[in-house]
Amino acid sequence: MPRSDEREFLNSVLQDCSPAVCFCEQLFRISQVLDDLIDRDKPVSDAAITGAFWMALIELPANPFYRQHEPYLRPLMASALQDWTDATGMERAGDEHGMHLAFVLRDQLTAVVIQCAYLIGGYDWMQSVSAQIRRHFHEDSLSDYINDLRG
C-alpha cells in the first residue's frame, strides 16, 4: 500500500518531475493489483482489475516520461516483474534461504525509481538519493517479512 507521504517523497527524489512521479505511481498501482490477485490475500474488485489493466495498456504507455525513456525503462520493468515472480515462488516454497532471497527480490520497483532519479538528475543526483529511496520503500524488516509469510 502506498504511504501517505509517497507523492511528496517521489516529488522530492524525482525533482518535481510530474510525468516521472506519475509514471512511478502508475507502476505501483498496477503492481499492487497484480500482487493482490496473485497472493489472494485481499479481495480485488472488478473495477480495480479493469483500472489496472487500463493503466497498464493505455495510461502508462502514454506517459511522456515513459515514452521518452521507454528503451531504458522497459527492460528494468521486465526485470522487476521477473524478480517479483521468482520471489513469489520462493515465498511459497517456504525454505529459509528462499524467503531471504524473496525479501530482496520482491520489490525491485525500487530500482526503477532509482533509475528514474538518474534519468532526471544524472549520476550525482542518483547517488545522493539512492539510499534514501531504498530506505523509504523497504521500510519492513526481514524478520517482520518472514513472520508475515509464516502467518
Q: Rg, please? A: 16 Å
Q: Number of DSSP strands?
A: 0
Helix residue percentage: over 70%
Runs in which pLDDT lies below 50 for 5 or more consecutive residues are none
Q: State the helix count.
A: 7
Order of secondary-structure elements? HHHHHHH
The biggest sheet amounts to: none
Rounded average pLDDT = 94
Shape: globular
Number of domains: 1
Distance between the termini: 19 Å
Strand content: under 5%
Topology:
Elements lengths: L5 H8 L4 H22 L6 H17 L1 H30 L2 H10 L3 H29 L4 H9 L1
Helix pairs in contact: 2-3, 2-4, 2-6, 4-5, 4-6
Task: Describe, in plain words, how this protein is organized in 3D.
This protein is mainly α. It has one domain (6-150). Helix content is 83%, strand content 0%. The model has no long low-confidence stretch (mean pLDDT 94).
